[in-house]
Amino acid sequence: MSSDVSDPGLAESGVRRIEWADRSMPVLRRIREQFAVERPLDGLKIAACMHVTTETANLIRTLQAGGAEVALAASNPLSTQDDTAAALVKEYGAAVFARQGVDRDGYYRHIHQALEIGPDLVLDDGCDLVNTLHTERLDLADGVRAGCESTTTGVIRLHQMARENALRFPMVAVNDTDTKHMFDNRYGTGQSTLDGIVRATNTLLAGKTIVIAGFGYCGRGLAERARGMGGRVVVTEIDPVKALDAVLQGYRVQPMAQAAEDGDIFITVTGNTDVIGAEHFARMKDGAILANSGHFDVEIDVRALADLTVEIRHEVRPQADEYVLADGRRLVLLAEGRLVNLAAAEGHPAAVMDMSFADQALTCEWLVGQDLAPGVYDVPEAIDTEVARLKLGSMDIEIDALTQDQEIYLSSWRRGS
């Protein structure tokens, strides 16, 4: 099968980086070794739309070890690592359609090219591949047995499709596992987002007012780490329960319209659209930094920002564009409003993706033996538990086990206190 990558000559560099990431991914490595022996995915074709990074490369290697043929398109052009893409094609035999920085047309062209494999299983990161199957490639949709989705936004879309009886095959919400919420969203997004902001701006976080839109798992992780770096954290929310949680954890909670006047750095992690818009830009102080680590480039209304602008100074620093407003104020937009942790940094540390991709690999294995109706399904609890167990083992950490008497006590209602 053909591929579309920027420079096959970068493969050697990509291999080095992939192997470096693999050192921090012991759980996935153990699954890959098991897959190589058992071959649970023999004969299956998998189409994936994911971030083309070194960590993803090690997931692709694991699926291949299980016997699968894999075609990969990029879920975010700004996160694509061209050397990783080249290595996957030249050294590991995957079909890859990804070039760093391609435009919207190129992005969807690559998704269509990956789907030409005629997939049995699909792996998606934002639901664009699944959406394409349901809107433009219905000829291939009926051949898909099942798939996995690894983002909050993607899962929201899938549930809506299921409610409208539009979903044509079963999808597993890998995003909703406890291990992914804990490691990927909380610890991964929390660290990698601040890493991207610091790389793009070289700003000091200590003493800054950092406004975080959304207090889900990603928002909590960000707030913890921003406070740990000396930031004064403000949280904006639409959910009363999450807002109350933020208050009780000691954060200031305000509407965005109010926080806009005080913030030095704004970070969106909601999965929704137009979280920061024209009315907020109008209130921001000179030099405010705008970053998104939630969903694509829709959370910050970049078009509204451009409409208010008299001059755009592109690349004042790598991945930092300065928008000069009519009154002379300057607002700095990072990564064009796309995911700052992937565009301006390297995404989650490999040790984080180790668990998320272990969930993905074991869920693919589980799906092979299932006959599910179209709908959205949770990852079996046994898989989530096994991934956590393997991770603890890789860290040489042991935990207690229930005694027989304790198991009886927990499972019986007849025994009193």
Automatic annotation (TrEMBL):
Entry keyword Cytoplasm: yes
Sequence positions that bind NAD(+): 151-153, 185, 214-221, 237, 272, 293-295, 341, 348
Keyword Hydrolase among UniProt keywords: yes
Known pathway: Amino-acid biosynthesis; L-homocysteine biosynthesis; L-homocysteine from S-adenosyl-L-homocysteine: step 1/1
Catalytic activity entry: S-adenosyl-L-homocysteine + H2O = L-homocysteine + adenosine
Protein name: Adenosylhomocysteinase
Keyword vocabulary terms for this entry: Cytoplasm, Hydrolase, NAD, One-carbon metabolism
GO cellular component: cytosol
PANTHER family: ADENOSYLHOMOCYSTEINASE (PTHR23420:SF0)
Documented EC number(s): 3.13.2.1
Protein encoded by which gene: ahcY
